[in-house]
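Appendix B. One record, verbatim.
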Amino acid sequence: MIEIRHFLRQETQALHRELDASVGVFSSRAEYARFLRGTFRHRAPVEAALLDGLARPSGWRPRDLLPALCADLADLALLRPKVEPFPLSNDMAAFLGAAYVLEGSALGARVLVQGVGALGFGPGFGARYLSAQAGSLDGWCTLLVALEGLDRQLWQAAAQSARSVFAHAIHAFTSEELSPA
């Protein structure tokens, strides 16, 4: 029998690849600055929607990583980009689908944090966000338990929410506002 996390991975695979291509690699300070701005445009509204959500599994709460991200933007003398609210349905399936994407990004952060070290950034300057995100998978493990409790008939709704979050992230990283200055 397929587990929901495998189902969600299959349902979002193409969008995940597109996002990875949009994020790219950090071979320069300008590319990393673009990443921070895109991440803020994406994470700020999605994290806020999850933190404000009434439907939330017991034992799991989204990590508030925006303070670290804002500190990184300040370290690089970058202004906070404009953001728009992220609409999130107030039901458990939508919440879990969105959380799957946001919390799952901690896995990718483990790879990305290694690349910024070569640019001179780390947990004390410029890469607080990535370091904090990559530092612990406890939230991911707790979320997986909550996901496994979701009724099978709600999996498609969770997948739709996950696809919406991925699409939001892709837009945040491909916006013309993020062009190098």
